[in-house]
Specification:
With 247 residues, the chain is an alpha/beta fold. It is built from four helices and 16 strands. The chain binds flavin-adenine dinucleotide (FAD) and FE2/S2 (inorganic) cluster (FES). Flavin-adenine dinucleotide binds next to strand 4, strand 6 and helix 1.
């Protein structure tokens, strides 16, 4: 099925010292779910760049991105009204359950979690969103976060989200944890989930080439039926149960 669309840039703005929010519209994106990603063609570059969807207003999808290299520099240069080439949506979704949820974001990983929060709110599912950033300047404006941590303590609580998870689990008593962020943070969250007997769902990130499950460039090991097997982050994921990943 063809999944490449021309999408119109509806909004683009800087939301922190290093991150930007872009809103693009294509009718085909109406049903994009939390956890899924889109791949943006960046002029002059062969490989599309993948980004999680962080909001969806009836087909107007939002992407929160951090400037890293040529691709994100190109996206940053776009103007309202530009038509861009976007493929997707790709990947699976968070498996939303009617369970009291602890949502954990770290860095740009806050993006898909923010979209998940809005979905849980729509369904009336109780949730608490904690997200960590390097410092105050990195905290994106306009994101609904219940508790912000910064490594240097310049905004919210001081330290990593990891420092607060044990206390939050004990006080808030979540029945499920959803998370996105650096590999090490997700690994620790999966371990905490095992320790407390709480299901965890983590959105993984890997550098991607094809983005559709063909090149096998984004493979990770997971446990299935007592065996270790390969899974692609782009097609089988990006969301996996923390307990099924071979960390
Ligand atoms: C499923 C998925 C969802 C993602 N969602 C987001 C998102 O919501 N917001 C966002 O800002 N970024 C997200 N990323 C990362 C994003 O794809 C990269 O930042 C982007 O491709 C960089 O492109 P570039 O041309 O600017 O940088 P490049 O020139 O390609 O790379 C510059 C540097 O960026 C880093 N980098 C590149 N690709 C990745 C990657 N996949 N993961 C981690 N670091 C990378 C490397 O350190 C590299 O040296 C996601 C990646 C995946 C796989
Ligand atoms: S990026 Fe090609 S299989 Fe995932």
């Amino acid at each position: 099925m063809k999944k490449i669309y021309k999408a119109k840039v509806e909004k683009i703005e800087q939301v922190s010292k290093t991150s930007y929010f872009i809103e693009i519209k294509a009718d085909e994106f109406v049903n994009v779910e939390a956890g899924q990603f889109v791949s943006i063609y960046c002029e002059g570059l062969t490989l599309r760049r993948p980004f999680s969807v962080c909001s969806n207003d009836n087909g107007k999808i939002g992407v929160l991105f951090k400037e890293r290299g040529k691709g994100t520099k190109y996206i940053k240069s776009l103007q309202v009204g530009d038509l861009i080439d976007v493929a997707g949506p790709f990947g699976n979704t968070f498996d939303i359950q009617n369970k009291k949820a602890l949502l954990v974001g770290a860095g740009i990983g806050a993006a898909p979690i923010s979209y998940l929060k809005s979905k849980l709110n729509e369904k009336g599912i109780e949730n608490f969103f904690i997200s960590g950033f390097l410092n105050k300047e990195e905290v994106p404006q306009g994101m609904q976060i219940d508790m912000v941590c910064t490594d240097d303590g310049s905004y919210g609580e001081k330290g990593s989200v990891i420092n607060y998870l044990g206390v939050l689990i004990n006080d808030y008593q979540p029945e499920i944890i959803y998370a996105c962020g650096p590999h090490i943070v997700l690994k620790l969250i999966a371990q905490l989930g095992e320790q407390y007997g709480i299901e965890t769902q983590v959105a993984m990130e890997k550098v991607m080439a094809c983005g559709i499950g063909v090149c096998r460039g984004c493979v990770i090991d997971i446990k299935k039926d007592g065996k270790v097997v390969n899974a692609t982050v782009c097609k089988d994921g990006p969301v996996f149960k923390g307990s099924e990943i071979v960390w």
